[in-house]
């Protein structure tokens, strides 16, 4: 994590102000603890917007992608994730699947997702960027501060 604060410590410190995502993610990147202001994408089995955004400067942010929990296609693989690392993104939180998991484990990037599927997703760019997305009992609003580690994902509202 950028500031080395654990999610459990953050829960103890902030109580109800901190939003805790109940989704049980798997770790895929080489970085298991990461944090940053979030940007969001809402999409379904289409990673065109994911690829576009991760090929732009990340400035230490975390991309949260609501793929509506689909495990039928992967929303990112090694090439897109490498672009994210190369462009300064701190991490990805995907309510969906990834592929190339062995390669993802070598990248200097935090990656949390539901699981894996080798099938590619569509590339049409369908979806929306920087809109509030919700899963795991919380709403992810662009600009919120996200912290992730082996215990889970938590959010502090923008301005906290």
TrEMBL record:
Enzyme class per UniProt: lyase
GO BP of this protein: regulation of RNA metabolic process
UniProt: substrate binding residues: 77-80, 99
A GO molecular-function annotation: ribonuclease inhibitor activity
Coiled-coil residues: none
Residues binding Mg(2+), per UniProt: 100
Reactions accelerated catalytically: 4-hydroxy-4-methyl-2-oxoglutarate = 2 pyruvate; oxaloacetate + H(+) = pyruvate + CO2
EC identifiers of the protein: 4.1.1.112, 4.1.3.17
Cofactor or coenzyme needed: Mg(2+); a divalent metal cation
Alphabetized UniProt keyword annotations: Lyase, Magnesium, Metal-binding
InterPro entries: RraA (IPR010203), RraA/RraA-like (IPR005493), RraA/RraA-like_sf (IPR036704)
Family label: Belongs to the class II aldolase/RraA-like family.
Functional description taken from the UniProt entry: Catalyzes the aldol cleavage of 4-hydroxy-4-methyl-2-oxoglutarate (HMG) into 2 molecules of pyruvate. Also contains a secondary oxaloacetate (OAA) decarboxylase activity due to the common pyruvate enolate transition state formed following C-C bond cleavage in the retro-aldol and decarboxylation reactions.
Summary of subunit composition and partner proteins: Homotrimer.
Protein name, entry field: 4-hydroxy-4-methyl-2-oxoglutarate aldolase
């Amino acid at each position: 994590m950028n500031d080395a604060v654990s999610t459990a410590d953050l829960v103890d410190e902030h109580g109800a102000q901190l939003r805790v995502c109940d989704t049980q993610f798997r770790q895929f990147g080489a970085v298991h603890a990461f944090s940053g202001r979030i940007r969001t994408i809402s999409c379904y089995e289409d990673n065109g917007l994911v690829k576009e955004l991760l090929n732009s400067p990340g400035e230490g942010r975390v991309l949260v992608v609501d793929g509506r929990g689909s495990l039928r296609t992967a929303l990112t693989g090694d090439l897109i994730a490498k672009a994210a690392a190369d462009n300064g993104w701190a991490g990805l939180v995907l309510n969906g699947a990834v592929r190339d998991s062995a390669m993802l484990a070598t990248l200097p990037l935090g990656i949390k997702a539901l699981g894996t599927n080798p099938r590619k997703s569509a590339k049409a760019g369908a979806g929306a960027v920087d809109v509030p997305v919700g899963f795991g009992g919380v709403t992810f609003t662009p600009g919120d501060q996200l912290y992730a580690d082996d215990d889970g994902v938590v959010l502090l509202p923008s301005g906290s």
